[in-house]
Specification:
elongated; disordered N terminus; 31% strand; Aminopeptidase; 15-stranded mixed sheet
Amino acid sequence: MTEASAATRYEIRAAVESDEDELLGLAAYLNTVNLPNDRAHVRRLLEHSEKSFRGEGARAHRKFVFLLRDRLENAAVGTSMIVAQLGRRDAPYIYLDVISEEKYSQDTDRHFHHTVLKIGFSYNGPTEIGGLVVRPDRRKDPERLGLLISYVRFLYLAMHRELFRDEILAELMPPLEPDGTSHLWEALGRRFTAMSYAEADLLSSTNKSFIRDLFPSGDIYATLLSPEAQGVIGRVGAQTRGVEKMLRRIGFRYAERIDPFDGGPHFVAPMDEISLVRGSEQRTLARLGEPGKKAVRALVARSYKSAPYFRALPAVADVASSGEAALSERVATELGLGLGDSAWVLGLGAARSPNSSSSRPASES
């Protein structure tokens, strides 16, 4: 690939089984339940993802993994995913509700505000977005790669609305120690499971029943936990603050729920209230050529019945006409589009100088 085709240097596509080494390399930077740094898990995840993109299996069981590739370097630089449904009869969605409770004694004139944790389960839960990671050396790329690989999930939700739940959830990473220690797990989870955080985290990627079986079912007063554990409940880690800002901007809110392992906050939004889902539109290609003055930077995407199943390209698109779009001939050719064909477009803002930069999401659990 040459500089002449720099406009299509990056692509986002469905991850497939042959991407195992590249996805494993990205997993090393995240290493959470959704994307553990474990080859066997990554292999199973890619098999699952490819079947999901093919439309195989029950809808509630599907997972969709996206890969952002730099075609100039022939390398993967980012990934993200959608889990069609958290919470099924075979694998409940497990969380800790964060409840505020006040206590007052008139006799002693003592007043206390307590944070109470209570385990909860859902067998018919939300769709989850997660597994977001961008290679550290590419997080300041002027093409805003973190934004691209994050936004593509909302574009895909809009394209295939019927596959997903009405509520969308994102779990954010909390503050962790440099060695990966979770203070909440050390104060709570380890005492009820006799497992290290790493052991429990890896096991939970395939089986969460031990949490349901071993965790206390009653109220847990955070006052009884260490100050360090109390301090991470519902908090967002430094690397994830950009993600939190983005989620709030597009319609998500903190659900007063946390991950039972590390205390990471759960953010939720109704599907139809997410601005990026509402802003994704199916448009007909009406003209080929250089876009006009009202052109915007956008993700332009199509789904396919066979490999690559899904592709999205960052491109400059003219979407001024209702229901129509204009693309460069090169982008249209890359996506296999001809005049009169339909594609999905998610505007990213005004067309930008290639040297401009912006803040970008970093990682999600």
